[in-house]
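Write out the 3D structure for:
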Amino acid sequence: MKRIIACGWFVTALLLATLPIQGAYPVRSNAGLSSKLRADLTQYVKTYGKKEHLSAVSFSASFHNDPMNIDLAVGTTRLGRGVAVTPSNLFQIGSNTKAFTAVAILQLEAAGKLSIHDTVGKWLPQYPAWRKITIQQLLNMTSGIPTYDLNARFQAAVAAHPNHTFTVADLVAYVYPHFKPPGKQWEYSNTSYILAQMVIAKAAASHSFRAEINRIIASVGLRNTFYEPEFYSTSVTSRLVAGYFWANGSGYEGYAPFLGMDTSRYSLSWLQGAGGIVGTPDDLATWARALYHDTALLAPAQRAELMSLVSTKTGHRIARTSARDPAGFGLGVTQGYDKNLGAVWSYLGGTLGFRAIYDWFPSRDVVVAIMINSYPSVDHIGTAIASLTGTLKKAGKL
């Protein structure tokens, strides 16, 4: 079954398959690089704008030891009208939020307030059916707990009342007490991250989940990244581009009433710690760097846990991805493998009207981030990334 839009389906291996072959290229000047990248983005909007009901693409590239990102945006803030989009415009980042939730857990572990090996039963005894599932299994998607956003009753509720405020308990109730044996297979679950959010709120004691996430955002210096559990203030929404639902196929049927509509101002209470953050590609690239480099964000032991992988094919632990097992999931992060590029860390997030993805290429320490104001095909996003990374390769950046 296809992963539903709220969850940020893991597609690194598919995207990597479209990337150009890496070679040994000398580092060259950035002169002209921005204009070539802008041409790539313009071509993407020209090719897929009408097909996938999108009007804006925003992009950021971050390079090793270079304090300045290349930040570009193409299109308009709304279909058929609106003003030109700029790199300061905001997009919903969807399941890229999950890494923030995972970091909050890992920071609490470093502070001695919990362990990722603690069980749901210890922290959330109100869910006895899931009592043996560990926090680590919640975060690496081996909990066996189904994702609430595939539930037909939930989809009907969202479609009928898109500004309804869901509590975390409301979201969990759509699937409790169902589950498969934990640790036996990998299956994407937004419910698992809502449960992690509940653990954070309880373990942090004097701080709410919202306060914990906003503290982390501030600690990394992300000035254009925001988290609210329900609705955003006008200071945020005035910068938020329209986001159009444009998806179909198995699993999407309940959201059909939204087809072609701007969903950007609806309540995000149905996502929260699983996907409720808004931001810019520049901030997402900065965040990706912090995830893999910043010792102030995560101590070495916790970063090792963040990057510990299970195979999305088998659910079993793997040291790294490979040609035989090319897709791995950590704690809110993913790793893909390509024979020409090696390991690439990535995350693709989506909401009703947005896609957001970053890729970190460790071999050259380059991060690229892209945000789109629709829910386009994964194959088409792969085409965009191939074009952009091909341009970066020719410029000696990859």
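The first strand starts at residue 56 and ends at 62.
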